Amino acid sequence: MLYFRPEDIGTADCTARFDALDGETRCGTCTLLIHDGVADLTALNAQDPEIGEGLFRAALNYAANKGVYMAVCSAPDAAAVTARMRFEDKDGVLTNDIPTLLMGYCGC
Q1: Could you tell me if 54 and 42 are in contact, meaning their C-beta atoms sit under 8 angstroms apart?
Q2: How far apart are the first and last CA of the chain?
């Protein structure tokens, strides 16, 4: 069973890091930066899109619990994950509100 472990970082470049753990094995990681009232998913390294999606959902839930409503994804090479979620391309920036991003999808 996967566990998504948050770690508060609190630097100018990273608010928190999230690790996907299967027992003691790390299967992926992502970083989140909260700035100007927006949650920015800045980096992703995951074994597969499903784990990446879980990491993004954990990070977005964390941000929502901090009172953040909007999110963007600036992580390079995250297209396989952002395609699984409800990100919208607005002027070259992948964005949406966190409640919409946390909604499920039918996979159609």
Answers
A1: no
A2: 26
